[in-house]
Specification:
Elements: H1 2-15, H2 19-24, E1 39-45, E2 48-56, E3 61-63, E4 66-67, H3 68-71, H4 75-88, E5 94-101, H5 105-123, H6 128-134
Helix pairs in contact: 4-5
Length: 163
């Protein structure tokens, strides 16, 4: 690695521009926490937007003032929320407080998952590699297609009748 850095420095010295080399060698990321020791992030999925705060704790998850098992009753949605902690290897080490608005339960679960992933990597930047490899830091941009005029839905046509 040091050989590559030296060769980059030599290459830029020949080109006469040392600024890009400094940008190419990235500094380690610093944790981003507030005065209470929490990390905050916003997660989005479909029409749902989640505001998520994480702090060290016993693994308690509160969504819109309710426990995880109460708000997301389906086991699949609970599993979606636990995925970032399992991938990062920090199960039951962080308490989560989230407020979610918009969309349905599935979109809200995806939004909280996205927010938790972003907050985890802000709290501890060493977890970024695992979360990024699992694809949890990328916002899922798929949204419902709008309805077009002359159509029954976005693409579905009205029933055709020959006679």
């Amino acid at each position: 690695m040091a050989d590559q850095v030296n060769s980059l420095e030599e290459l830029s010295a020949v080109a006469g521009d040392a600024a890009p080399v400094a940008a190419a060698v990235a500094e380690p990321r610093e944790p981003v926490r507030d005065a209470l020791g929490r990390a905050y992030a916003t997660g989005k999925r479909k029409d749902a937007v989640a505001r998520v705060w994480i702090k060290p704790g016993s693994g308690k998850v509160i969504v819109n003032g309710k426990e995880l098992n109460t708000y997301f009753a389906r086991p699949v949605l609970q599993m979606i929320l636990r995925q970032p902690f399992e991938v990062a290897g920090v199960e039951d080490q962080f308490d989560v407080v989230a407020t979610v608005k918009g969309g349905g339960l599935s979109g809200q679960a995806g939004a909280v998952k996205h927010g938790v992933s972003k907050a985890l990597q802000l709290y501890d930047p060493s977890l970024r590699g695992a979360l990024k490899a699992a694809g949890f830091l990328t916002r899922d941009s798929r949204v419902v297609e709008r309805k077009k005029y002359g159509k029954r839905k976005a693409r579905r046509s009205f029933q055709f009748s020959k006679r």
